[in-house]
Design a protein that fits this description.
The protein is an alpha+beta fold and about 220 residues long. Helix content is about 40%, strand content about 20%. It has helices spanning about 15-30, 40-45, 90-105, 120-130, 140-145, 155-160, 190-215, and strands at about 5, 50-55, 60-70, 75-80, 110-115, 130-135, 170. α1 packs across α2 (about 40-45) and α3 (about 90-105) packs across α4. The longest helix is centred in the C-terminal third of the chain and has 27 residues, at about 190-215. The radius of gyration is 18 Å and the shape is globular. The termini are far apart. Residues about 210-215 have low confidence and may be disordered.
Length: about 220
């Protein structure tokens, strides 16, 4: 199976709705929060060359787009998705790696970051040299955090003043001297445990609030 990963153009507009549907259905299947995208927004990214798409014999196989914040000081990769028919072949890592290299060329001085609840994405990021960081090290641009409004966990993010949520923040700083293998090797057990602890803490606070409200 030959899959090509290319920078998007207007000819890829026809895949926008399918991309949005695949992102949403994947999040629902995992039971995680989701920041929804519209086909119009995806098409805008495509037209500006701010995205990459994977195609298998002309069919949509995967996608990811780039966003820049604070005048290019920070760059984020969003909407990373692989169509169900092409999963379990390492395609997500290939797309992410391509977008990562593309971002370094377009924004050589930018810090590359992301927030995610997915262990698979955390693993890919770690292999590229990202490290887990608190949200305070990420962009302060309110437009970025406003993009989380359609996520089911947005009330939690608001209650923490954009400083914490169920997502894990990860950051790649090009000014740091990178090593091979990465300085921050991925430990799935540790990050999985961290995710469970965060979920338990938020659940306990929510139950306490409900208890007080009933009283």
């Amino acid at each position: 199976m030959k899959i090509s990963i290319v920078v998007t153009q207007e000819e890829h507009f026809k895949f926008a709705q399918e991309i949005c549907d695949t992102i949403e259905s994947s999040a629902l299947l995992r039971g995680t929060g989701i920041a929804k995208r519209t086909p119009e927004y995806i098409q805008k990214k495509m037209a500006n060359g701010d995205a990459m798409i994977a195609l298998a014999d002309g069919k949509f196989a995967g996608f990811c787009y780039i966003e820049s914040w604070q005048h290019g000081k920070f760059v984020a990769h969003s909407g990373l998705i692989v169509h169900p028919d092409y999963r379990s072949h390492g395609l997500a890592k290939k797309i992410k790696s391509k977008v990562f290299d593309y971002s370094l060329k377009r924004f050589p001085d930018a810090k590359i970051f992301g927030i995610t609840t997915g262990l698979a994405v955390m693993k890919i990021n770690s292999e590229l040299g990202y490290k887990p960081v608190p949200f305070s090290e990420l962009t302060t641009d309110p437009s970025f955090w406003a993009g989380c409004k359609t996520c089911t966990n947005f009330p939690i993010l608001q209650s923490k003043e954009n400083k914490m949520c169920l997502c894990t923040g990860m950051l790649y700083d090009p000014k740091e001297k990178q090593k091979t293998p990465p300085r921050h090797p991925f430990n799935e057990a540790v990050l999985s445990r961290l995710k469970k602890i965060k979920q338990a803490l938020f659940l306990n606070k929510l139950l306490s609030f409900v208890f007080l409200f009933k009283i």
